[in-house]
Amino acid sequence: MTSIKGLKISGELGLVRLHAISRSSGLLPAFCSILAGSQINIPFLSAEYQAGSIQATCCVDAAHRDLLKRLLSSEPDLHKRTEYTSGVGLLTLYPHQSSLKLFGLSLRTLTKAGLRVFAMASSIGALTYVLDYAQLDNAAAVLLARFELAENHAPFKAEYTVTQGTQRRPGSGE
Amino acid sequence: METVAMYWEPQIKTYGFHVVKNLALYKYSIPVDLSAPWEHAIKRIEEGQNRFQLVCAQLSASSDLELLLLCEPEQGVSLARHIEAEIPAIADRRQVTTPVELLFFQGPHFGDRFGIADFTFKALKEKADQLLASVFACASVYLILPEGAADETKTLLAAAFRIPG
Description:
The complex is a heterodimer of chains A (174) and B (165).
Chain A: E1 2-4, E2 6-9, E3 13-20, H1 27-37, E4 44-50, E5 53-61, H2 65-73, H3 76-79, E6 82-94, H4 100-112, E7 119-122, E8 127-132, H5 136-144, E9 147-149, E10 161-164
Parallel strand pairs in A: 1-9
Antiparallel strand pairs in A: 2-6, 3-5, 3-6, 4-5, 6-8, 7-8
Chain B: E1 3-7, E2 17-31, H1 36-47, E3 54-59, E4 64-71, H2 73-86, E5 95-106, H3 116-124, E6 133-137, E7 140-146, H4 150-160
Antiparallel strand pairs in B: 2-4, 2-5, 3-4, 5-7, 6-7
C-alpha cells in the first residue's frame, strides 16, 4: 500500500473560472489585483495560456462570495469572462516525491468513487484537488482506504488560521 | 476558526527562486470520468518510474480534464509511450511544447495570504504575457515559461521579493 504522511481538507470555498480568448488585456493580473485590493486570498490558482487564450481556475473563501460578485459586477470585462461556482473545497495530500504514483492512484481513486475533480495541481511536496465541498470527507475516506497514512499525521482540518495583515506590528522595526 | 497569526511584510519574502531548463510540457484532454483506456493508461504511468516537475489539471468547458504535465523530455517520451500503448489515437491529439523552462518559489504561508498572485504578476510586468502556465498552490508558485525566458523572469522577481540572506 502506498504511504502518505498527511492529508488536509480546507473550509468551504468558491470556484472562479476565468476564460478569455485573448490574454493581451491582462485579465488574470487584473482579476488578482482586484482581489488583493479587497484582501481576498486565492488559496488555489491554476492558469494555462495558449494560442492567445487563457483558461484559469481559482478558489476563494466562500465568505467572500458576495463581495467578489460586487467587485466583478463593476468590472464588465472581467464579469463576462468569469463564472462562479459555490461549494468547493481543497483536498491536499503529501508527499508526492515527484513521482506520478501518488497522482495516478489518487486521481483514479477519486474518479472511480464518482467524485468530480474541478481542478488539481502539484506544489513542491503536495497534490491539491479541488472537489465538491460536500464530498470532501467522502473523498478523504476513499483515499485513506487506498493509502497508508503515517501514524503521527497532522489533523485533517486546520485548527487555526494564518492571515495576511495590512499594517506593521508596532515596534516590529520593519 | 481562531486566527493565531497575522503576516505583514514591507516586502514579500521568499526562500529563493529555482529555475529548471530544457523541460517538456505535455497536454492531454482526459474524460472527467476516466474512460477505461485512460484508467489503464494512468495505471501504467503510476507503475512506471516517471517523475514530474509539475502536474496540474482544470475542468474545461467541454467537461474534460485538461491535464498539463511538465517533466524532463526523456520522462515525457516514456510517459507518452505508456499512454499511447493504451490509447493509440491520442498520439494525434496530444500537444507537446519543448523546450520550456520552469521557475518556482515558495514563501511563508503563501497559500493563506492575500496578494501573492497579484504581487507576482505586478513584478513580472509585461513579461506576464510570456507565461505558458502558472500555478499557485499551498505555499508554492510555479511559472512555466518559453525557452530563454526564465533567467530574465527570475531577475524581475528577485528585484521585487525579498530573499533573506
